[in-house]
Amino acid sequence: MNIIIYEDEGYKDFLPLTWTRPVYDLRCGVNTLAEKICRQYPKTNVEFSCRYYLPGNKTMKLEKGLFINGRVLAHERLAQEIPLKGQDEIFIADKEIVAIRAVSKSFAQVSKKAKIKKVDLKVVKYPWELIFENTMELRRDKKFFGKKGKAKIDKSAVIYNQADVLIEDGVEIEANVVIDARGGLVHLGEGVIVRPHSYLKGPLSIGAGCKVAGEISRSIFHGNDNKQHYGFIGDSYIGEWVNLGAGTTNSNLKNNYGNVKVVINGKSVDTGQKFVGCFIGDHAKTGIGSLITTGAVIGMAANIFGGGITPKSVPSFAWGAKDRFKLDKFMETVKIVMSRRKIKLTALQEDLFKKLYRLAK
């Protein structure tokens, strides 16, 4: 039986991070949500279903298989809770459908015949949950990490709790860097460069190709991000190809120690947490001296400049406070940025950006 990992309407609550990827390609710990699901069903054919405009889209259609919601945070008991073999069955966790095993010929028949089973699984609903779950997920992913990669580590670097620092090939840790894994694991993806005098505090996951400096704690950097200057980023999810200018700093705690609220789909949502940073979409950029307010959401391809405190919510393709980034200028910038990493913008990606320019606000 095939497995089909799909995304439902819940992806909207992860925007702008999900404008450019299916929700199951978000990272938590070392791996993506999809990778975590796949490794619980070894030697099983896995297919994917996502929104119509994303590259590699496969519209979910009727076929026999085990359909798993891409927002499931898979753990070691997933295949036991939701086994491949069996009859028509619908699996529920926290009032949400997390999986459907379809054996009958039509979904109508499945809905009539299927038994309902409640399962003990976590389904992420908001982006800050990826940050909260990062501590445990790094520890789970460590079991599958294998040997540490070959890295260049300056002799002056200080690493606390080295056993919980997961380093991939090509990592460079420069002079006087401090990596503190005493409070949680630290993962440095392939080719990550950590500039001198930086302080990295776990739980922390820095994706492949990132260049980082300053102070970073309890965050996820998706990949190919630039934060090469002083400034603090904490309790945040930074999308891919983001550039944070010198002095860019985010707040992760309100002065009154109250719960942080985040704007999701135009509505203010109480996170129920005191420590929440920011969420920045792919290809966004901040100018020097940008101060990101607590719980801020910065849209995909947004350009913030002029210094000072950012708004609570910045639209995608924003250019400063009032204008919109022109599409041709955005494309030109993307090509330059990616070429600096010897990566070429594909025709599929270019087509996606054109669609998102109409869709993303």
Automatic annotation (TrEMBL):
Coiled-coil residues: none
MF-aspect GO terms: acyltransferase activity; nucleotidyltransferase activity
Pfam families assigned: NTP_transf_4
Alphabetical UniProt keywords: Acyltransferase, Transferase
Lineage: superkingdom: Bacteria
SUPFAM superfamilies per record: Trimeric LpxA-like enzymes (SSF51161)
Acyltransferase found in the keyword field: yes
InterPro entries for this protein: Bifunctiontional_GlmU_bac-type, GlmU-like, Trimer_LpxA-like_sf
Name under which the protein is recorded: Glucose-1-phosphate thymidylyltransferase
